[in-house]
Design a protein that fits this description.
This protein is α/β, with parallel strands linked by helices. It has eight helices and nine strands. It starts with a strand and ends with a strand.
Length: 252
Amino acid sequence: MSRRSEPAPATGTADPGNVALFEKLAGQWWDPDGPNRLLHAINPVRMGFVREAAIAHLGADARARRPLAGLAALDAGCGGGLATEALARMGAATTGVDAAVQSIAVAEAHAAAAGLDIRYITGEVTELAREAPGQFDLAVCFEVVEHVAEVGVFLAALRTLLRHGGLLVFSTPNRTLASLALVKFGAEYVTGDIPKGGHDWRKFLRPHEMERALGAAGFRVARMEGLGWSPTRGFSIGGGRDLDYIGAAIAA
């Protein structure tokens, strides 16, 4: 069963417009053909990257069926729990936090039906950082930083939540003309692969901007790769960073 805390105050890094949008779509989080279908398609690739990074930087056992066993993991901006459940299935003691009340309700119900022991919190990472500094070995934030109001504050809170030497894995779209055409306009308004109105392209971070923000928050970037898609291979790690990228950073 999932364990739910009381909602945290609605202050900090959340963008109210984005929270409202995802509240409306919360019931469709687990629909693989719904507005979050790209997240379903990309999740196995992202979690493979998490596994590799945990083996490289946290001493996770490459041969284990549950390589994250013994680690405390946080999914920041967890939505309906797609990555959160994957972390739990890999053995981590897992917490998911999101500002959208209905998304957390959906995540809790899905975890309970799957028999997964996940702690879900309605609130913000800034509030959690004040309550539980240094609690986690691993944090993930997938397609989140482009939605928050204050990237520096958000990343600083994640650094506070991680122990020294802890691992952050992140992914986010790049700010390029290609992402403007294909992510913002194409995927939102033409194909409907992601929620309409869910992105402000001006808030996308270029890789060097993300690395600079991470450094200012107390992280050292260990790896950064393109996260691409092709009609024949689907999503994969490597190649160009024009659309999206994924990386690992160490809490210094």
